[in-house]
Design brief:
Blueprint: H1 14-17, H2 44-57, H3 61-92, H4 96-100, E1 102-109, E2 114-115, E3 122-123, E4 128-134, E5 142-144, H5 145-150
Antiparallel strand pairs: 1-4, 2-3, 4-5
Helix pairs in contact: 2-3
Length: 151
């Protein structure tokens, strides 16, 4: 039994405890205190759209804006990383190993402006060029007339 004279420790209210971190959300910043404030002036129409979206999702506007910023940043990083990979693949050009996989060269007329796989010079639309023919799944190359004469 409890004695009326005995004092029990005071319980903290939900407001005094502070926000509970979301669990299992996959957020890399999960549990990290968000103590920096970012302010931005936005057009009334954007503000109204953000408020309406936040109501639909039943989240505070600040959480919606933070999620949008984090997702956008992650998306841009992925695009940049993908662009670097593409640029490296294009810049790699054609070497002797690639040339050994080519079975033959098919004459063609360029339907758009292309870069020569061997030297990187431009092949203009309507110009004669050559496309590599190789085993299924092998890389395809397009070379200019000058490079075809050198092979």
């Amino acid at each position: 039994m409890y004695s009326m004279n005995r004092k029990e420790p005071a319980r903290q209210s939900r407001l005094q405890q502070g926000p509970r971190p979301a669990q299992g959300s996959g957020d890399p910043h999960e549990g990290e205190r968000k103590d920096h404030v970012l302010q931005a002036r936005v057009p009334r129409s954007l503000y109204n759209d953000l408020v309406a979206q936040a109501r639909r999702l039943r989240v505070p506007v600040s959480n919606l804006v933070r999620n949008i910023l984090e997702d956008s940043t992650r998306m841009v990083e992925n695009i940049v990383d993908g662009g670097i990979e593409i640029a490296e693949a294009i810049g790699r050009g054609m070497d002797e190993e690639d040339l050994s996989s080519v079975l033959g060269w098919q004459p063609m007329i360029a339907n758009k402006r292309l870069a020569c796989s061997r030297r990187g010079c431009m092949i203009e639309k309507g110009s004669h060029a050559f496309m590599s023919v190789g085993a299924p799944g092998s890389r395809t190359f397009v070379i200019c007339e000058g490079c075809k004469c050198e092979i």
